[in-house]
Amino acid sequence: MVPKHMKEEYERYISSLKWKQKREKAIEGTFCDGKYWCQRCGWDFDKSKLEVHHLNYDSFGKEDTCDLAVVCIRCHEKLDKSRAEKARTKSDNALYEAQLDGWATKVYGENWQDYNDIDSIAQEFEEFLESKNEYW
């Protein structure tokens, strides 16, 4: 699954000759013993049944072969789902950290991290959230 902000750029790049050549090279790299292999499940497939998965989008458009995985459609779906879950977790963690910082700043002032134990402040914040939920 491609991040929303990259959708247009992704579609343009995936249709390009540059990508098609890179994709072909990656798939050819799995050829062994007269077969093409999924790098995740290890099963052999017809070349046309393999897809190329971006392990990350950090080097999108300039990716090396090590930034890609040649996989079957089932494994591709699993990898996309896993990446989406990691992105959600990262986003949820960032939101929680921002909320904690905002709450602690209101309660303890700017630079609260310099004068307080972060773990105990986080525990206080959790208790605050629980008490807030009791009223809603």
Automatic annotation (TrEMBL):
> Gene3D superfamilies attached here?
1.10.30.50
Source species, domain of life: Bacteria
A Gene Ontology MF term for this entry?
Answer: endonuclease activity
* Entry keyword annotation includes Nuclease: yes
State what protein this is by name: HNH endonuclease
- Pfam families listed in its UniProt record: HNH
Q: Where is the HNH domain?
A: 38-79
Q: What are the entry keywords?
A: Endonuclease, Hydrolase, Nuclease
User: Does the record's keyword annotation contain Nucleotide-binding?
Assistant: no
InterPro entries to which the protein is assigned, alphabetical = HNH, HNH_nuc
Organism, by scientific name, is: Oceanidesulfovibrio marinus
